[in-house]
């Protein structure tokens, strides 16, 4: 029996690490990817307040993304976005639906509704 314990231990370690990312690791990586993508937007500053993912199927997650957005340029939508006091809108709270697909090693995300879609 003692001969099999090291083999069993090694096998369990391999199984644990071969399962891919945990949900928390995936969430953190998606947040980092979103931050990178949002930083390319020259018209709006987007701060991620939270992202909560729920597993829908083996490799599909649905989530809720909460952001705080500040307009940097009035050319955002082609409409008049200046507020009554003449200032550009700041710290506007938004909630979006997010879909994430992951194979355990890589992922892709998509915002399903709203301005950031």
Strand content: 35-45%
Strand segment count: 4
Q: Identify the CATH architecture.
A: Roll
Identify the overall geometry: elongated
> Fraction of residues in helices?
25-40%
Q: How many domains make up the 3D coordinates? A: 1
Q: Spell out the helices and strands N to C.
A: HHEEEE
Radius of gyration (Å):
21 Å
Roughly how many Å apart are the termini?
57 Å
State the secondary-structure class.
Answer: alpha+beta
Helical element count?
2
CATH topology: Nuclear Transport Factor 2, Chain: A
- In the predicted model, the low-confidence regions spanning at least 5 consecutive residues are 4-18
Summarize the structure in words.
The chain is α+β, with helices and mostly antiparallel strands and 117 residues long. It has one domain: Roll (Nuclear Transport Factor 2, Chain: A), CATH 3.10.450. Helix content is 26%, strand content 36%. The chain is built from two helices and four strands, in the order H-H-E-E-E-E. A four-stranded antiparallel beta sheet has the order 1-2-3-4, covered by helices on one side.
Please outline the helices and strands:
Blueprint: H1 4-17, H2 23-38, E1 44-57, E2 60-71, E3 92-102, E4 107-111
Features:
117 residues; alpha+beta; Nuclear Transport Factor 2, Chain: A
Outline of the structure:
The chain has 117 residues and is α+β, with helices and mostly antiparallel strands. 26% of the residues lie in helices and 36% in strands.
């Amino acid at each position: 029996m003692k001969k099999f314990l090291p083999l069993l231990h090694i096998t369990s370690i391999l199984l644990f690490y071969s399962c891919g990312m945990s949900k928390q690791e995936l969430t953190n990586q998606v947040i980092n990817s979103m931050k990178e993508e949002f930083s390319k937007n020259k018209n709006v500053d987007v701060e991620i307040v939270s992202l909560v993912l729920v597993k829908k199927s083996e490799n599909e997650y649905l989530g809720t993304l909460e952001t705080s957005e500040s307009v940097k340029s009035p050319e955002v939508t082609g409409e008049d976005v200046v507020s009554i006091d003449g200032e550009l809108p700041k710290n506007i709270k938004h909630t979006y639906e997010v879909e994430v697909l992951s194979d355990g090693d890589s992922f892709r995300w998509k915002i399903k509704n709203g301005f950031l879609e």
